[in-house]
Amino acid sequence: MRTTPLTRRSALLGVTAAVGLSAAALTLPAGASAAPLRPERPTIVLEHGAFADAGSWDGVVARLQRAGYAVVSAANPLRGPAADAAHLRGVVDRIAGPVVLVGHSYGGTVISQAAAGLEGKVKALVYIAAFLPDTGESSLGLTDKFPGSTLGRAVESVSYTLPDGTRGEDVYIEAGKFRGQFAADVPADKARLMAAGQRPVAAVALAEKSTKAAWKTIPSWALVTTQDLNIPEAAQRYMARRAGARTTVVDASHAVSVSRPDAVARVVERAARAVR
């Protein structure tokens, strides 16, 4: 692995990887009791962001399941907004009934594009320490609008060549810097596991511009994190205010779904109840 001192212009975005569901979306922790699923309730679909995986929602999933919601924690390919949105739409298409889409970080960019044209099915968008880009904007460009992100000094990259000769570059957070940069309020042992299992984002995904902004036509909610070193608080507030999102502010790091799953689940439930 070669370390590349990516500037803030090539470091601040992320999300992509593969297909799949978190184990937490299918089972409850031992001893947990779930309320019976209620058909009138929307299915909650969770989209993680860069440097995380579907398991980063586990605490949120458990709380939503106990409240009686069907939950899908999707695997984000983290290759770029267009490709990732197409993947997420496939997940949504196989779900019967209404859906609430929830995106963390770069996952917000993905849900904004994936939900466009699905107003009859996607009833709410929930942004958790996330990007809410307008058309023509990129995650990187939005981060560059405001000071405060230190992600560019914490990342390293891996270059690769595909069988057809195409070259690419994936971006990771350096293991030794992961907790301080991404998950400062997560216990150290848990943060080490997150660092070891982090999903890289394609470097090109950070600069790819969005082509749709579903928050213009679908009700939105936002959770803003005040100790975020990936997406500055000012950037999050700007995007949420522009979208007219109902906003909750939490004193937490970027990894708020892990450190404060209770707060995240409350915001998601608030959105789900409002659109039933």
Automatic annotation (TrEMBL):
<dbReference type="InterPro" id="IPR029058">
    <property type="entry name" value="AB_hydrolase_fold"/>
</dbReference>
<feature type="signal peptide">
    <location>
        <begin position="1"/>
        <end position="34"/>
    </location>
</feature>
<protein>
    <submittedName>
        <fullName>Alpha/beta fold hydrolase</fullName>
    </submittedName>
</protein>
<dbReference type="GO" id="GO:0016787">
    <property type="term" value="F:hydrolase activity"/>
</dbReference>
<dbReference type="InterPro" id="IPR052897">
    <property type="entry name" value="Sec-Metab_Biosynth_Hydrolase"/>
</dbReference>
<dbReference type="InterPro" id="IPR000073">
    <property type="entry name" value="AB_hydrolase_1"/>
</dbReference>
<dbReference type="Pfam" id="PF12697">
    <property type="entry name" value="Abhydrolase_6"/>
</dbReference>
<dbReference type="InterPro" id="IPR006311">
    <property type="entry name" value="TAT_signal"/>
</dbReference>
<keyword id="KW-0378">Hydrolase</keyword>
<keyword id="KW-0732">Signal</keyword>
<feature type="domain" description="AB hydrolase-1">
    <location>
        <begin position="44"/>
        <end position="266"/>
    </location>
</feature>
